[in-house]
Amino acid sequence: xxxxxxxxxxxxxxxxARLFSEFGIEPIESVVNDIPNVPYFIRRGIVVxxxxxxxxxxxxxxxxxxxxxxxxxxxGHPHLGHLMVMKEVVWHVQQGGSGYxxxxxxxxxxxREIPWGACxxxxxxxxxxxYALGFVGETYYxxxxxxxxxxxxxxxxxxxxxxxxxxxxxxxETALSHAVSTITQVADILYPQVDAGPAPTIVPVGIDQDPxxxxxxxxxHKLRMFTVEDRGTHISVRSKxxxxxxxxxxxxxxxxxxxxxxxxxxxxxxxxxVATVVxxxxxxxxxxxxxxxxxxxHRFIPxxxxxxxxxxxxxxxxxxxxxxxxxxxxxxxAFTGGRATSAEQRALGGEPDSCxxxxxxxxxxxxxxxxxGEIRRRCxxxxxxxGQCKKETVSLVLAFLERxxxxxxxxxxxxxxxx
Length: 419
Ligand code: TRP
Ligand code: SF4
Known about the structure:
The protein has helices spanning 14-23, 29-32, 40-43, 53-62, 83-94, 105-112, 116-132, 146-155, 161-168, 176-196, 210-222, 244-253, 271-284, 324-332, 342-348, 356-365, 369-380, 386-410; strands at 26-27, 47-51, 67-72, 98-103, 137-141, 201-206, 226-230, 235-239, 258-260, 263-266, 294-298. The longest helix has 25 residues, at 386-410. The protein is an alpha/beta fold and 419 residues long. It has a seven-stranded mixed sheet with strand order 1-2-11-6-3-4-5, with helices on both faces. Strands 7-8-10-9 form a four-stranded antiparallel sheet, with helices on one face. The radius of gyration is 24 Å and the shape is globular. It is built from 18 helices and eleven strands.
């Protein structure tokens, strides 16, 4: 990865590295060579970490099925800060994944107290954006999906309040619906495998969602009847809660295998093939046969005011439904990485890596790596001043929004009558 387009590569933040190693998240570099057509959000260092992305890279390379799912909480209008994860989902669908998008209205209502009508209206805005980006697949509202509720209930048998307390800090005052929305998100992440059959599932999220991913991975494992492990000399199929008959079927499925109390040892054969057969047996006996879900973690686009891009600070965001004149005003007022005077900037250069205008280009506005590299170079060399640079970026943003709205209109029919 060339550091001309990845501003983070040379000075990786130690905080992020510590966070990753504390929670067992792998740096994305560990799988980058296995990914066919590395997308710009990985090349540019926007997606930084993953869990088990190797499963997804394999599926993409071999054309085997995989799912991609993410969710949006409809607690406000969608803005540029939500665009990255939408693009990640669309990209994975284009690479062969079956797509799922959740409108987390139970979470918005249960945790943020958003009225149901507003949840529905905001949810629709998110879905319109997704279709405009080329999303193909299933979408649902948590509150309208009975199969999801049943799955959430089942998943709830594998978690207790002390775990919720440890993970989320829940206490005696926590509303029960808050806990329900947590287990609903677990069900969201497992839902594609119940809806369309077990397959590796990638869940692209921001790092703040990792507690849900960890909880779900634990529950997916607990809901399995079997574990399958390569022991070098043989493959061990262990029963966790498998019915005796299912255990017998595993033994029969592999001639020459040895059956013991609680496990069957298979010699010869590949682990993934044994795992597939065991999954089918598990499903026939009423189990789920889940693959433990995979995840990726992206950085957040900085807000126009220099801090986070957040609906609670309207000047920090660019709304995907906001009128052009409002967007223009916010951009003109935006913070940059410029110096106090033009003379100083010509002498020292600007600071693109702490400039929200540069990050707009890096995240969304400039597709060509060479063009982006050139913007960064000219800024660093003091060859371009912020006034000019901003002007160029503003015209890209306004053109982008105009095209985006045309796409929303063209794809509006995909939304109606579906939910
Ligand atoms: N909790 C997520 C948010 O706050 C939304 C969400 C709900 C979600 N279900 C999900 C995200 C499943 C990823 C996967 O934005
Ligand atoms: Fe940001 Fe452009 Fe100014 Fe550099 S020249 S600091 S990229 S606005």
